[in-house]
Amino acid sequence: MRYENYSSTSALLESNLPLPLYRHGKVRDVYELGDKLLMLSSDRVSAFDVILPCGIPNKGKILNQLSAFWFQQTQHIISNHLITVIDDMETLKEYHLEDYANQLIGRAMIVTKTIPIPIEGIVRGYLSGSAWEEYRQTGTTSGTDLPAGLQENQQLPYPLFTPTTKSDTEHDRPLTRDDIKNYGIGDIFAKLKNVSLMIYDYAQNYAKSRGIIIADTKFEFGHINDTIMLIDELLTPDSSRFWDSTEYKIGHPPISFDKQPVRDWIAASGWNKQPPAPALPPTIIKATTARYNKIYQLLTEKGVFS
């Protein structure tokens, strides 16, 4: 992969499938397939809600395959929307998409179409990010009182469910009781919380056996009639903080397996966080690809993408 040429002209950053577009996201493009959807994970990368003019090679494949892995691992806890991963020409022929193999194989999946529930079910096991910033100021996280004297990145006494809103028109914010009422999810909110905590507990135990800490993560849900399902992505480096447990020390910056090299470079670049975003240097792109590959290899015990 020639990292210096990995620009927005790549077909792996922008897709042109002959299907009705259901949703265009920062990373994923979703297309209509009748009562199903085709969900395509691109190599796009964003910072501060702005898509950068360059991608991370094979990021889309890793996100897609890792989500599929976790959907299969957690289906005993709750059903999910995954029908099949597009891994071969036969699946493409079924949907008359064989001319788009380069864009789809390995980085797309067919999923059940659901009605999305407009929240993000965030579970935090460690005091990091915005949770740490709130704790420093108020001693709480999402309004939950925590013991005094905790340090940054320290494990919490117990995992916290800290859901937020999910909107295309405003920044996510902590979910309120009024939101729960207005969204009409009062009768299922307890289930969303319990399922989120159960998945986190299962995934955390699994990951720790492979030298990984899941500091926090987010879940998204949809429903068909009375059936609630996991949707979107699941336990990927884009939706979770994965740390190296062998190097973990309370109060010290952890070694993470996500786009931290991108965040660090952006922070030092002087960019004002307004469009257009700057292009990443090849060294940062390469380092970020390596981190995504590493977490995929550690969690699935499969080979890396190259």
Q: What would you say this structure looks like, in words?
A:
With 306 residues, the chain is α+β, with helices and mostly antiparallel strands. The chain has 2 domains: 3-113, Phosphorylase Kinase, domain 1 (2-Layer Sandwich), CATH 3.30.200; 115-247, D-amino Acid Aminotransferase, Chain A, domain 1, CATH 3.30.470.20. Helix content is 29%, strand content 27%. The protein has 8 helices and 15 strands. The protein has helices spanning 59-73, 89-94, 101-104, 129-138, 177-182, 189-208, 260-269, 282-300, and strands at 21-24, 28-33, 36-41, 44-47, 50-55, 82-85, 108-112, 115-126, 140-141, 144-145, 155-161, 164-165, 212-224, 227-231, 240-244. Strands 8, 11, 12, 13, 14 and 15 form a 6-stranded antiparallel β-sheet that branches. A 5-stranded antiparallel β-sheet has the order 1-2-3-7-6. The N and C termini lie close together (7 Å). The mean pLDDT is 92.
- How many helices? 8
| Overall tally of domains | 2
Indicate the radius of gyration in whole angstroms: 19 Å
Helix content: 25-40%
Name of the CATH superfamily of the largest domain: ATP-grasp fold, B domain
- Strand-residue proportion: 25-35%
Q: Indicate the structural class.
A: alpha+beta
The coarse silhouette is globular
Classify the fold: give the CATH topology of the largest domain.
D-amino Acid Aminotransferase, Chain A, domain 1
Order of helix and strand elements from N to C terminus: EEEEEHEHHEEHEEEEHHEEEHH
Q: In the CATH hierarchy, what is the architecture of the largest domain at level 2?
A: 2-Layer Sandwich
The biggest beta sheet is recorded as: 6 strands, antiparallel
Parts with pLDDT < 50 across at least 5 consecutive residues: none
Averaged pLDDT: 92
Span between N and C termini? 7 Å
- CATH class of the largest domain reads Alpha Beta
Number of strands: 15
